[in-house]
Amino acid sequence: MTPDDRLAAQFAFLNEADRLKSVLRATTLCDGSRRENSGEHSWHLALYALTLADQAEPGVDITRVIQMLLLHDLVEIDVGDVPIHSANGKAHASTETQEAEQRAADRIFGLLPPDLATRFRALWDEFEAAETPDARFAKSLDRVQPVMANLQSGGGTWITYNVTLDQLDTRVGSKVARGAPALWDWVRAKVAPFFA
Question: With CB atoms 3.0 to 4.6 Å apart as the test, which of 32, 43, 57, 186 could cross-link to 153 if both were Cys?
Fold first, then answer.
């Protein structure tokens, strides 16, 4: 690959990634004024990682966590946002959704030069698997950010999808607690009165 071809591939990926700003999520901004887009969500999560790094288990590499969070939702360019509570939690976990996300990852990361494609895809796959300490922390932040937005906006998608505290504990709390247990304890104490 020539230097010119490499730059062309890098910009093709970056231009495609710009489309993430047009993907609307179910979650609203904290003030409830409008739905956030997936680009805003990814930026906010990177800021969450930087700010809440002290909540990660020892040895977590926050730089890698930020990289995962910047990449994790790029597949939504093709698939769209699939809210965790939609279809009573089944839409998010469906095999169809996961296969569509895999195809989107192949296409989007495939725009990059091979070395970057391999590295970015590996970070995306690691985030999806949520088995390493870095990925568990990244996944925890991805789950807790919408909780905080819903809390700040007076219920947001919890109202839209008739979410119960039990569902929140199962679909969100268990994932947050895997990577940031003290963070979930604090957040849950703030959330519980909303469901009382």
Answer: 32
